[in-house]
Amino acid sequence: MTSGTALKERRYRLLVGGYAISSYGTFLNLIALNLYVYAVTDRALAVGVFLIVRFAAGFLTGLVCGPLLARWSAKSAMLWANLVQAAAMVLLVAAPDGYRTAALFTVSAVVGAAGTLFMVAFRSSIPAMVGEGRTTWANSLMVSWRSLAMVAGFASSGLVVSLLGYTAAFLADMATFLICALAVALLPTGADRPGDADREDGEAGGGKGNANGKVRSSAALAALTTAPALLLMVALRGVDALGSSSHNAALPVYSTRLDTDDPAVFVSVFWCVWAVGNVLVQQVLRQYTKRTERSVGALGFGLGTIAMSATFILAFAGFPWAATIVVAVLAGAADGLTEVSYTSHLQTLPSGLRTHAFGLSATVENLGFGIGMIVVAAALDAFTPLSVVAVAHGAAIGVALVFVAQVLWQRGTSRKAAAASEKEGNGNAGPARGSHRDGAEVSGR
Question: Which residue, 169, 149, 147, is CA-closest to 158?
Answer without folding.
Answer: 169
